[in-house]
Structure formats: structure tokens, C-alpha cells
Amino acid sequence: MRPLAIGSIEIWPPLILAPMSGVTNRTMRALYRPFGLGLTVTEFVSSNALAYGSRRTMEMIDQHGLERPVSTQLWGDDPSTMALAAKVVRECGADIVDINFGCPAPKVTKTNGGSACLRDPDRCEAIMRAVVGAVDCPVTMKMRLGWSDDSLVYVDVARRAQSVGVRAVTLHARTAKQFYKGAADWEHIARLKRAVDVPVIGNGDLDDPHDAIAKMRDSGVDAIMLGRATLGNPWLITQIRDLMEGRAASPVPSAPDRLRFALVHYRTMVHELGESRAVPQMRKHVALYLKGISGAAMLREQIMRLDRAADATALIEATIERLEASALVAA
Ligand SMILES: Cc1cc2nc3c(=O)[nH]c(=O)nc-3n(C[C@H](O)[C@H](O)[C@H](O)COP(=O)(O)O)c2cc1C
Questions:
Q1: Cis link prior to 121 (omega < 30° from 0)?
Q2: How far is it, in rounded angstroms, from Cα 96 to Cα 6?
Q3: Is the CB of 20 under 6 A from ligand 1?
Q4: Could you tell me if the CB of 18 is within 6 A of ligand 1?
Q5: Which stretches of the chain drop beneath a pLDDT of 50?
Q6: What domains can you pick out in the chain, each with its CATH number?
Q7: Which of 50, 64, 176, 179 has the CB geometry, 3.0–4.6 Å to 85, for a possible disulfide?
Q8: Contact 22/56 with Cβ under 8 angstroms?
Q9: Are 306 and 242 in contact, with CB atoms under 8 Å apart?
Q10: Rounded distance, CA 106 to CA 97, Å?
Q11: Are 164 and 125 in contact (CB under 8 A)?
């Protein structure tokens, strides 16, 4: 296995955390990075909002300095606005600028952004050309297979990307119309790898360390990107990194240790975002950390009802104590 090269940036391991809007903020990325990620990507950022100087958007592109290299993802349908936004994010610390041609959410596609761009490959090309021309760092692009089954444009758009100087292409192997239905089709990812010379990053449904490595080898991709399966389970990242580095996959920590990490995640989010923003965001994270833990269904219900961080963290601490006490009894 080789490092992923994006322009002159060398990435090891070739393991990337997927951008996930509303989830992969800088706190989350900084916490998950040490598990073994080679690259992290910001949540997607609206090029229009950046052009207007929206404060919340500026916060989204702000970096800790704890994650290098980091890629900032932009979406929009206007080449000159995307070029301007690319300059802004580069000045704010992006090592790589990534273009989103994948988002299927109606609030994005109704303005022709995200995956809607794939309905017009000429526009994709114009956007990519403008962004590549605007910045002195590598530009990458992330897309779906196409808008729908009858318009699978990914090879065409990737070849255009390559011809205008985009340095790597990520493919989430579903169409926009599919949203998250069905399975990601890795045959398409293998086909893309054979069709272009730029590095290809495969994405979609990777949730098991051995299967992830098998998909990487079978498709021939240069790197893999993990999304939903890492949520509440960053140990998956370590397991894949272990296999990439030729070791056996580390065991997943005990339930109390997993919950101890959930507590770190919770407290860091409160520290960074303040209680009123962190508590709603942490409900979904805690629900995922609780997966596989005895009594999880009831705990999830309780966590959903709590509005104070102190109550939620006390509940997690009590759960750790209960799990450890029952382990002692069992021993
Ligand atoms: C909550 C959520 C938010 C997402 N936001 C983004 C985003 O901002 N930019 C993007 O390119 N993809 C986004 N995606 C798609 C993921 O990056 C990834 O392509 C998709 O989840 C498939 O990978 P997975 O099966 O490993 O999760 C999002 C996915 C989820 C579940």
C-alpha cells in the first residue's frame, strides 16, 4: 500500500474521514484524527455564504491547526463565486480545496449546487477550471455516479477534472436520486480507477475493516473514505489503519472505555461550542456510542430528553460505573 499523493501533499495512511454536514466540525475532526486518519475534510461550505462573509460559515472553515493536512469543501454552481470562495478558504488555512458535486439534499440541488451540477458536465468543468485557477494548492472533487441511473456521468466528469488540473477524485458510488438507498456499487469505483490517471478515492458503505481493505484492493483505488460507520465507532479507523500498516486489527475497546471516550467527545464539544449548541449535536453521537451496550435503548431515550450537559455526562458516568460493577460481579 502506498501513500496517497494529492499534488505534492503525501497522505498516510490513505484513509480519509468523509465530510458530513452537521457532524464533522473541527472538534469532531480533531478528536477522530488521531485514531489513524491521513486526511480530514470540513463539512461542505456554501460558496455564496462565504462571498457574503457569513459569520457561521467563517466559523466552519476555521481550523484548529490540529489537523494537517486538511481539506475544505465548497459547494455552489457559479464558477466565479466558487473561485472567490476557494481563495478565502485557502487564506484561512486549507491545504486542499475540495469541490462538492455529490450532495443530493433538495436545499442544495434546488439552487443547482452539489449533485445537481452533474446534470451539466460543462458547468462542472467550468467550476473546476475556475477553482483550480484561483488557488496555489491542490484542488480535488467529490461526486456521485450521476444524477440518476440513466445519466451516469462520473467517468466524463472525472476526465474533465483531470484535464483542468484537479488532483484527485472521490466517488460515492450512488446516484443523487438514490440518496442513501441501495448499496454503493464498487464496480463503478473500479471502472473509474481504470478510466483516469488522477488518484481515485473510493467511498460508500465501508463499515468493516477487512471488507474495506478488500474493496480497496479489488477496485485498485488509491485511498478510501469512511463516513457513517465511524460515528460512535472511531476504532474502525484504527482497525483499518492497522491493516494498512500490515498489523492485525486492534480489538475494539471495552464498553466502559468506549463510553469514556464519549465523555471526552461530549466535554470537548461543550467547551468548543457552548452547551446550547453542543447538547443537541451530542444526542446523536451518544446514541451511536451506546450501540451494543446493555440497556442502550433506555439510555438513548433518556439522553434524548436531557437538556443539560451535566445531566447527560452524569448519565454516561453512571453507565460506566454500572458496566464496571457488573463486569466485577461476572468475574
Ligand atoms: C449526515 C451526513 C452529512 C453529509 N454531508 C456531506 C458533505 O457536507 N459533503 C459531502 O461531500 N458529503 C457529505 N455526506 C456524504 C458522505 O461524505 C459520504 O459520501 C456518504 O455518507 C457515503 O459514505 P459512507 O457510506 O461511508 O457514509 C454526508 C453524509 C451524511 C450521512
A1: no
A2: 8
A3: yes
A4: yes
A5: none
A6: 4-244 (3.20.20.70), 255-330 (1.10.1200.80)
A7: 50
A8: no
A9: no
A10: 23
A11: yes
N residues, the chain: 331
Any atom of ligand 1 within 6 Å of the Cβ of 115:
no
Task: Give, for ligand 1, the residue of 228, 230, 236, 285 to mutate: max count of ligand atoms closer than 8 Å to Cβ.
Answer: 228
E strand residue ranges, 145-222: 168-172, 200-203
What's the CA-to-centroid distance between 327 and ligand 1, angstroms? 37
**Grid coordinates in use for 146?**
450521476
Q: 124 catalytic, yes or no?
A: no
Q: What is the pLDDT of residues 218-241, one digit of tens each?
A: 999 999 999 999 999 999 999 999
Query: In terms of C-beta density within 10 A (0-12 exposed, 13-18 middle, 19 or more buried), how is residue 140 classed?
Result: buried
Beta carbon of 250 within 6 Å of any ligand 1 atom: no
Strand partners, 142: 100, 170
pLDDT digits (tens, 9 = 90+) for 65-104: 778 899 999 999 999 999 999 999 999 999 999 999 999 9
Q: Give the number of the atom of ligand 1 that is nearest the alpha carbon of residue 205.
A: 25
Per-residue confidence (pLDDT) for residue 55, from 0 to 100: 81
Question: Could you give the 3-state DSSP secondary structure of residue 133?
Answer: helix
The residue whose grid cell reads 436545499 is 107
- Separation of alpha carbons 132 and 139, rounded Å: 6
Smallest CA-to-CA distance from 49 within 38, 36, 59, 41 is with 59
